Amino acid sequence: xxxxxxxxxxxxxxxxxxxxxxxxxxxxxxxxxxxxxxxxxxxxxxxxxxxxxxxxxxxxxxxxxxxxxxxxxxxxxxxxxxxxxxxxxxxxxxxxxxxxxxxxxxxxxxxxxxxxxxxxxxxxxxxxxxxxxxxxxxxxxxxxxxxxxxxxxxxxxxxxxxxxxxxxxxxxxxxxxxxxxxxxxxxxxxxxxxxxxxxxxxxxxxxxxxxxxxxxxxxxxxxxxxxxxxxxxxxxxxxxxxxxxxxxxxxxxxx
Amino acid sequence: xxxxxxxxxxxxxxxxxxxxxxxxxxxxxxxxxxxxxxxxxxxxxxxxxxxxxxxxxxxxxxxxxxxxxxxxxxxxxxxxxxxxxxxxxxxxxxxxxxxxxxxxxxxxxxxxxxxxxxxxxxxxxxxxxxxxxxxxxxxxxxxxxxxxxxxxxxxxxxxxxxxxxxxxxxxxxxxxxxxxxxxxxxxxxxxxxxxxxxxxxxxxxxxxxxxxxxxxxxxxxxxxxxxxxxxxxxxxxxxxxxxxxxxxxxxxxxxxxxxxx
Lengths: 255, 261
What we know:
The complex is a heterodimer. Helices cover 79% and strands 0% of the residues of chain A. By secondary structure, chain A is an all-alpha fold. Chain A has 2 domains: 1-35; 39-248, MetI-like (MetI-like fold, Orthogonal Bundle), CATH 1.10.3720. By secondary structure, chain B is mainly alpha-helical. In chain B, 81% of the residues lie in helices and 0% in strands. Chain B has 10 helices and no strands. In chain B, α7 packs across α8 and α9 (205-214) runs antiparallel to α10. Residues 256-261 of chain B have low confidence and may be disordered. The chains are: A mainly alpha, B mainly alpha. Chains A and B meet through α1, α4, α5, α6 and α8 of A and α1, α4, α5, α8 and α9 of B.
């Protein structure tokens, strides 16, 4: 997905999105799908714009964002520190590696009922679920990045008199940064997805809850609005992370 | 000495499982919460679920949907990903669309798809298909992009057509990367399956989990979590075996499944 944005490519890329919307409009206009099941795109976007200025909608988005950022931040802090610790210390690695092997393929969403029972139906259970799901990609790519740091860099730093503990922050962390940021990007997308699902399964507010409420009352238009909102949120957050990445990685050869 | 080290390495995941269960047991004994049974109580409830005919049929039906969705997704995504990797135009055409779809939770489409296709197998399989496709496309794309040009030129010089080059050169060369995507996709298929059943609440493993939660059968809830967790770990381990056999020639790379939802 490292698209070197060239105008031609961007234009070409807009074609399928336009086609999807056109197909969507076409299905409705030519009566293949009744508007109650598939509302026309214009109606959905109008509804989205109309919703965007209401305070209830802001409240739902805020609830979702709190959970998203809460979980994501925990995942970044834990993932980066455990990943670097495991890469730096063989003893920690020997403990972390098998645990990660067992926990990484475990479908975290299955833990959600347990989290509900232990932490209640409020923010906490959702934040922990988001953190648990976003943790592993970040941890693994941090570990990968930190364990492939060129030994020569460390030797040079040591030869230049850097104390051992500072090497971690001055050499290993910056050198592992591209890989860490890739992990964060995957983690961010996962956070978006998981927070939405958790809210769909049980919640009293948030975007996922909006979708479920709309589905229960067969309001097809209102079902599309939260979906489009979460997709837009994902794109915006991804863009912000990309901007952060190009700022942090200025001066890296290819990033 | 060597054999002791290998033995330790082999048993490490099992030890990790035991350790995690021990932590669970300890935590529940300390917390003394009615809704948090000990690990031993939960494990004791596992056989009763697995011998219950209804539950077993439900779980097997879930697994069947998962297998179908996964297989269809591979058949669709690998060719698309490979073509995207080899042709800039195809990549530029599909990439933005995929980027827009990426952050949409696939299981969240369940209510909408249910409106169109009903609550049956078709809509659940479709959701699994959608969930698995993206990582597989992405990894096939990355794998095909990294194929050495020289090999393709040699192939072309020896008279292979574009289609033959894709099958005979690009596919094998990209196989390790594709399989990494498949592994992610497999875990993802399980997650999507459970989630879609939690949302549709009509049948399947996810439904058993939440019904037990609603009825306050907490040991069943935790036993189901163990069963689903074991499914994930076993599927992953089995796939790892297959992968190691298929790409024996490629150097072992550090890849563990990156779980998505």
